[in-house]
Each structure stands twice: as structure tokens, then as C-alpha cells.
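Page 42, continued from yesterday. The earlier attempt failed because a stray header line got pasted into the input along with the sequence. Redoing it now with the clean sequence only.
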Amino acid sequence: MAIEKNFLKGTTTVGIVGKDFVVLAADRRATAGSYIANKQVWKIVEIDSHVAATIAGTVGDAQMLIDRLKVEAGYYKTTVGTPIPVKSLATLTALILFNYRPILLVQMLIGGLDGDGPSLYSVDWLGTVTQEKYTATGSGSPYAVSMLEHEYREDMTLEEAVNLAVKAVNVALARDPGSGEGVDVATVTREGVKLIRR
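This time it went through. C-alpha cells are written below.
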């Protein structure tokens, strides 16, 4: 018997990499089809002190996956003695999603700093993982990506990157009915993860 998941979902998340930082941004609206289930959802989550992730997709699936990643990151730090590399965390996420496809419907942006510097990975629900300088996920992503492609520069300051991420999500909020209710931001620097509710 085939199980079909036919959900209408909406969200917009954005990630930007700078010289020594990563910026993540997301809207706050949780939808179930055309029903707005919640207007104050955090779609950015700190996984460890050096890495955070955005979520798009089915909420329960995303919550389970985030909890698993937090445990794995903590276990790695305890056994190895150093924080888990961002690439390793992205690869683990991809393996979990690949093994559970099409049961888990989650797309994530994972961004952080480690010994190799800042990095950003996009992981889709099929387990595809790609490293990006900037990207977006969710139903509003076509609008957000067009803004990122137009204004992204590799030499952006942290403040400029935060402003661009907010601007990209706001473009989606104006055009995508699945996204809304404002923008949250996270910055990942050598000082750690900082979550900002704007």
C-alpha cells in the first residue's frame, strides 16, 4: 500500500555566507494548506554553538530531525572533543533524509563556522546536499533568490548581509501567500549563534 503525502506548505528561508560569518533568515508563518496554523513560529534553530539551521516542510518531521541533529552534534563533541564540522552535519542530515524518503518532508539550510571557515549547505527532502554562497528554500524561494542573485557580494559586511537576507525574505512575503508575519534572523560568527526576532 502506497502512502501519499499531499501537503500544501509555505515558507521562505534564506542563507548567506560572508568572509567570516553566516546569516540565516526566515518568515514566521506556519500553514496547513490555506489555513494559517501559527503566526509566530521560529524556523531557525541553533543546533550547536557554531551551527544553525532553517527548516521548511512538515513541522513534525522537521522537529524530529532537528532533535536528532542536536543529539548527534552533542555526541560528536563529547566523544571527539571538538564541535562537529558543518559539512559532516550536512552530510548526516542528507543521509537521514535519503534513508527515510519519502516519509520525511523537510528541506534545510545548515550554516555555521568551523576550522574551514564559514559554510552554508542546502539539504532537500530527497537527501541532496549542495554547498552554497547564498540560497533560499520554501515556496517563496523563487522571489528571494532573485533578490539574492541581484545584490549578493562576497565582500559584504555582516550588517549588509543581514539587511539583504531580510530584504530577500520580505520580497517573498509580499508575493507568496504561504509566507508571512515578519522576519527572523540568525547570525553565526566566531562568537556563536545569535537569534534575532525583528
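Notes: Residues 1-8 have pLDDT under 50 and may be disordered.
Reminder to self: strip header lines before submitting.
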